[in-house]
Each structure stands twice: as C-alpha cells, then as structure tokens.
Design brief:
With about 210 residues, the protein is mainly alpha-helical. It has one domain. It contains ten helices and no strands. The longest helix is centred in the middle third of the chain and has 28 residues. About 75% of the residues lie in helices and about 0% in strands.
Length: about 210
C-alpha cells in the first residue's frame, strides 16, 4: 500500500510537468524546487525504505497521470464555467463510470476478502454502509470536487497540486489521533519536506531566489 500511496501522490508533481508539456505553462525555479522537496517528502512519508514495485503499480501510475490531467483540465474549464455546474458535471461522470464499473466487474459490489459477500440490499441499507456513503459522497466527493474547482478559479494549478501533497500528512495525523499510530523519524522528515516545498513554491521568488 505504501508504494501505491506514493505513486498516487505523484499526481501533484506531475501537474506542473504536464502543464508545461501539454499547454506550455511555464513554471519558476522556486516552483521546481518546491515540487522537488514535496516529492521527496511524499516518498519519505508514504514509503520510507519499503518501496517494492509490483505489477499493479503500473495501473496506479496511470491513475496518477489521470489525476494530474484532471487537475489541469479543471483549471482550464473553470475559468469559463461557473463552479457549481462544473462540479455537477464531474459528479455525474463519476456516478456513471462508477456504476458501470460496479455492474461490469466480476467481483461482488460489497465484500471483504475472506468473508461472505453482501447483497446490494443488505449492504446499502446497513447503518455502517449508509454512514460511509454519506461521508464519502458528501465530504470526500461532492465537497471535494466543489472545493477544488473553486480554488482553481483563484489559484494556479501547481499550487492546488502542492496543497494535495498535504493529504498524507493529514492521514498520518488522523491515524495518530484515532488509531494511536506514531510517525517515525523518516515520516517526520518527509512531512517537514512537504511543508518546506510548499513554502518555497509560495515564497521562493521573494525570499529564496532574490537577486543580489
């Protein structure tokens, strides 16, 4: 799971790279250095010394490219469309594609390995699944798409991408609060590196690369 988390997180540094390759969006030296620090921090925080690539990682890498392209396209479309209609279109697309995938897949829609699969009726109307649907659907999907689109109206793509690198930091903090998990020294260095990368990207031209 650690390498999958790292590869998925690569969507953030891929945004300025693909933005330059696809749309010729130039980025400053401070942004390049900030993205480099954030990438190193992401690696240390999610992988540490346990990176072992496997066959499924190629699919995760494709997913990272898809996330990065989605962020770039959102930045382009949001300048010409209101945020709420754009969000609704994205949610509709997610619902359609997810529904098709659920019905086409040979695996049961709701199951845990080693346990008896649940039927659609039994699982959807159980309290724990209903609460998960509400949390993931309202906060993790609807609000997340709206917030990203709204932010990309006022912030460049690369800054929004760098903010996304904070995700593993919040995940670690949540795990520490609710699961009593601790973050090792490598993870702490990674978290600091991510924050430093964001600071350099935001203020680099003013403080780090000021001409003599």
């Amino acid at each position: 799971m650690s390498n999958a988390g790292f590869i998925t997180g690569l969507a953030s540094p891929l945004v300025p790279v693909l933005g330059f390759l696809l749309f010729r969006k130039k980025i400053s030296r401070s942004v390049c250095v900030g993205v480099l620090f954030a990438t190193i921090g992401l690696y240390l925080l999610t992988v540490g010394d346990k990176l072992v690539f496997n066959q499924g990682d190629s699919l995760v890498l494709i997913c990272a490219f898809a996330f990065a392209i989605h962020m770039l396209l959102t930045g382009r479309f949001v300048s010409a469309m209101p945020v709420i209609p754009l969000t609704i279109i994205q949610l509709l697309a997610v619902g359609i594609y997810s529904g098709i995938s659920a019905f086409v897949s040979s695996e049961p829609a709701f199951y845990l390995a080693g346990n008896t699969p649940l039927s659609w009726y039994d699982s959807v109307f159980s309290p724990i699944v209903l609460s998960a649907i509400l949390v993931a659907g309202i906060l993790g999907t609807a609000y997340a798409y709206w917030a990203q689109s709204a932010c990309q109206k006022i912030l460049p793509d690369y800054k929004v991408a760098l903010i996304f690198t904070l995700e593993p930091i919040f995940a670690c903090l949540t795990a520490a609060i609710f699961l009593n998990e601790t973050l090792g020294i490598i993870g702490l260095i990674g978290a600091v590196s991510i924050l430093l990368g964001m600071l350099i990207a935001e203020t680099g031209n003013k403080f780090f690369f000021r001409s003599a």
